[in-house]
Amino acid sequence: GTKKLWGGRFTGKTDPLMEKFNESLPVDKRMWAEDIQGSQAYAKALAKAGILTQEEAKSIVEGLDTVAAEWRAGEFVIKAGDEDIHTANERRLTELIGAAGGKLHTGRSRNDQVATDTRLWLYNELQVIRKALRELIRVACDRAEAEADVLMPGFTHLQNAQPVRWGHWLMAHCASWQRDDMRLGDLLPRVATLPLGSGALAGNPFLVDRQFIAEELGFIGGVCPNSMDAVSDRDFVAETVFFCALHLVHLSRWAEDLIIYSSGAFGFVQCSDAYATGSSLMPQKKNPDALELIRGKAGKMQGNLMGVMAVLKGTPTTYNKDFQECWDLMFDAVDSLHDSTRIATGVLSTIIIKPEAMMKGLSSEMLATDLAEYLVRKNVPFRETHHISGAAVKMAEDRGCALSDLTPADLRTIHPLFDDDVAAVWDFARSADARDTEGGASKRSLLEQVAKMRKYLELS
Ligand code: ARG
């Protein structure tokens, strides 16, 4: 068999299937760069602590640069016995520089190493994701502002409710994306907290300077406060996958709206060719596949989250090999989210809107509330005006006409306080603009929402 890093006390051979079952290299080789960075920082810390000479540390750092160059060039040769990225890199380093390579792992365990590598990898990725998320918000703000005059029906229960602005709908989704951005900002320092220097579980006897390592690696959250917790804690994985799952839920609700709006019956929007596909049978089809995939990935992500939680549940304190099962769920979560966010940005920046179809979707019945409010302004209690307006809706329905076809004289047969100026109620823009409270559907409020969102992006 192959020589194992941990083979000293072993005499028997590993079952070949066990070898495969145990190995994580196919998954965790993705963190080769972070594993090397972590080792370089650790070598420097060992030199600072007087465990390595400056020459030894230098030869380790340079040897690791060579290993990195091999990975980058696609020339790193994986050998039998390379159990995971940590053993593979150390094996190669020792081949390159000899005995000094064998000193790198002094006081270190793969337990504090793997947690460090993953956190480093995740911290970098989450910053890339944050940029993508913010780009999506930016695109939504730009459209909301540029198309602030476009009116559309707002729905509750997917039933016609009240007129809103297309931009108001956009900013509704932006508000959920902003919370995602805040959650991500809050999460970053907890991801970027350093486990290294915790050893297998009890700490480091060579007194490596953990603050120094944290600074070397850019861990903004400082160092993990307890060595047993440091090798035990996978909250950063669970929180990240939860963040991915919730952001995908938000994206999928946004996607679902657009899938409905792009259907033949609505026709409010049309996906650009770049994000749609056709049918192999029906020549006329243009399907919103990008949006459907986002919706599907949101479903799958619930499974990733449950997977991580279930792996962690009931594991005894400190490190257990169960944890290894989290990595592919985490990588998949990060990949799916990054792709989905960028696709969403592409869809949103190219989607064609059909303001006339949105106008057609508006009917004067959606102003029945406004009709009631007209009488409220004449001091009739709302509970009564609700009934009065309901009676008008019934009258229009009985006559088979639109609510707005009722004349002021018709309305006066229901209540005497309807004056001729009631005709001004039949104006969708006026209805939206009447809702001029902070966060309301008025144009002024909409532009204010956009301005505040931009300020948020600027300041945080
Ligand atoms: N490949 C392992 C993992 O991902 C690295 C840590 C191994 N530690 C150990 N004590 N066997 O979890």
Automatic annotation (TrEMBL):
Tell me which CDD domains the record gives. Argininosuccinate_lyase
Q: Which Gene3D superfamilies match?
A: Fumarase/aspartase (C-terminal domain) (1.10.40.30), Fumarase/aspartase (Central domain) (1.20.200.10), Fumarase/aspartase (N-terminal domain) (1.10.275.10)
User: E.C. number, please?
Assistant: 4.3.2.1
The record, for InterPro entries, names: Arg_succ_lyase_C, Argininosuccinate_lyase, Fumarase/histidase_N, Fumarate_lyase_CS, Fumarate_lyase_fam, Fumarate_lyase_N, L-Aspartase-like
Per its record, the protein catalyses: 2-(N(omega)-L-arginino)succinate = fumarate + L-arginine
Listed A to Z, the keywords are: Amino-acid biosynthesis, Arginine biosynthesis, Lyase
Under the heading Pfam families, the entry gives: ASL_C2 (PF14698), Lyase_1 (PF00206)
Primary enzyme class: lyase
The Argininosuccinate lyase C-terminal domain extends over 366-431
Q: Which SUPFAM superfamilies match?
A: L-aspartase-like
Could you name the Gene Ontology cellular component terms for this entry?
cytosol
Pathway participation: Amino-acid biosynthesis; L-arginine biosynthesis; L-arginine from L-ornithine and carbamoyl phosphate: step 3/3
* Superkingdom per UniProt: Eukaryota
The answer to keyword Metal-binding applying to this record is no
Q: Which residues are in the Fumarate lyase N-terminal domain?
A: 8-303
Name the GO terms of the biological process aspect: L-arginine biosynthetic process via ornithine
Q: Which GO terms describe its molecular function?
A: argininosuccinate lyase activity
UniProt similarity note? Belongs to the lyase 1 family. Argininosuccinate lyase subfamily.
Q: What is this protein called?
A: argininosuccinate lyase
